[in-house]
Each structure stands twice: as structure tokens, then as C-alpha cells.
């Protein structure tokens, strides 16, 4: 099963989840870059209000074709209890997402707020069949097998019939 893992990461936490998921699934990584180029203070002062309003960022890559994949995962950090403007734009940039199985994840310091619900709704609006969502904290990522719940959403294990 081929998996496309699309994510935005400013501090590296969402990148770490995406990389661990890629290692577990053999999936391809697509890192979305926000062309605003936020400084650390800019993430809070400029980016968080934009996230709260559900705005879309100018991103690179501007289009993301997932038509050749069997499943899609989209990940975002949490800014102001919402997905980042770059993650919002990534969902809007998807091509070939219709009818694809999908999953979402977010990374936060412990309060994902509306992030997962909004990401799920955006993907459903685009025609994806969202299987589920997982939130991660830095502490979660210290545990072995932290991404297994996300792996199971992307590659459900066959049930043995004995």
C-alpha cells in the first residue's frame, strides 16, 4: 500500500511524527513550507491569528498530486488550537484526494483544540474518506511505538480468522 504523508512543521515535532510514520509504512514524505517564513515570535504574533481565522498560506509545493497513492496522511502543528495556515493550504492543494482513505495528525503541547476536527472536515469536504485522527505531544513521542495508532489508521492490520 502506497502512502503519501503531507505535513507542515516549523519546530520539527510534526516532521518527527511524519518521519516515524514513513519509516513504519514505507510512505513518501511531502513537507509543506509556508512562504511567509515565520520567525519564532512571528509564529505567535502573525501565524496564530491567521490559524484562528482558518486562513490559507502561500505554500511550496503549491499543488500536491496524491492520485497515485492508496492512502493519504496530513499533519500539522497546533497554532491557537487550530491547524496552521500552511496545513490548511496543503489540504486545499491536494489533487486526486477524492475517495482516498485518509488520516490526520497534529502535534501540540497538550491541547489540540479544534485542530483534528477542522483537518478532518477539510478532507471530508474534499472527498476523502477519513479513517481517524491522532494527536501527539512531545511526551508521546518519547514512547516506543508512539505512531502505531496512526500506522493502524493508514494500514489496518488484517484480522486473523482462526
In short:
This protein is α/β, with parallel strands linked by helices and 162 residues long. It has helices at 13-25, 40-52, 85-93, 115-125, 148-154, and strands at residues 3-8, 28-34, 59-60, 64-65, 71-79, 82-83, 94-95, 101-108, 129-137.
Task: Give a description of the structure.
Pfam families: FMN_red. GO terms for molecular function: FMN binding. Belongs to the SsuE family. Isf subfamily. Residues 3-158 form the Flavodoxin-like domain. It comes from Methanoculleus bourgensis (strain ATCC 43281 / DSM 3045 / OCM 15 / MS2). The protein is α/β, with parallel strands linked by helices and 162 residues long. It has a single domain, classed as 3-Layer(aba) Sandwich (Rossmann fold). The protein contains 5 helices and 9 strands. The protein has helices at 13-25, 40-52, 85-93, 115-125, 148-154, and strands at residues 3-8, 28-34, 59-60, 64-65, 71-79, 82-83, 94-95, 101-108, 129-137. The strands form 2 sheets. Strands 1, 2, 3, 5, 6, 8 and 9 form a 7-stranded mixed β-sheet that branches. A two-stranded parallel ribbon has the order 4-7. Helix 4 (115-125) links the parallel strand 8 (101-108) and strand 9 (129-137). The model is unreliable at 158-162 (pLDDT under 50).
Total count of helical runs of at least 4 residues = 5
End-to-end span in angstroms?
Answer: 25 Å
Largest sheet: 7 strands, mixed
Please write the CATH class name. Answer: Alpha Beta
Overall shape: globular
> What is the CATH architecture annotation?
3-Layer(aba) Sandwich
Which oligomerization state do the chains in this entry correspond to?
A: single chain
Annotated CATH homologous superfamily: Flavodoxin domain
Secondary structure category: alpha/beta
Number of domains: 1
Task: Give the fraction of residues assigned to helices.
Answer: 25-40%
CATH topology: Rossmann fold
Please, what is the average pLDDT? Answer: 92
H-E string: EHEHEEEEHEEHEH
Note the beta-strand portion: 25-35%
How many DSSP-defined strands?
Answer: 9
**What is Rg?**
15 Å
Poorly predicted segments: 158-162
Amino acid at each position: 500500500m502506497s502512502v503519501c504523508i503531507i505535513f507542515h512543521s516549523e519546530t520539527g515535532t510534526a516532521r518527527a511524527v511524519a518521519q516515524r510514520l514513513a519509516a513504519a509504512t514505507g510512505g513518501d514524505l511531502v513537507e509543506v513550507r509556508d512562504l511567509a517564513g515565520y520567525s519564532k515570535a512571528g509564529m505567535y504574533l502573525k501565524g496564530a491569528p491567521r490559524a484562528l481565522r482558518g486562513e490559507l498560506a502561500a505554500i511550496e509545493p503549491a499543488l500536491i498530486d496524491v492520485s497515485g497513492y492508496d492512502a493519504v496522511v496530513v499533519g500539522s502543528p497546533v497554532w491557537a488550537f487550530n491547524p496552521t495556515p500552511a496545513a490548511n493550504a496543503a489540504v486545499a492543494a491536494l489533487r486526486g484526494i477524492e475517495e482516498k482513505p485518509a488520516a490526520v495528525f497534529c502535534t501540540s503541547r497538550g491541547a489540540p483544540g479544534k485542530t483534528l476536527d477542522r483537518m478532518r472536515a477539510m478532507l471530508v469536504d474534499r472527498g476523502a474518506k477519513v479513517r481517524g485522527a491522532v494527536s501527539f505531544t512531545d511526551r508521546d513521542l518519547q514512547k516506543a511505538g508512539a505512531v502505531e495508532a496512526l500506522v493502524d489508521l493508514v494500514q489496518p492490520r488484517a484480522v486473523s480468522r482462526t
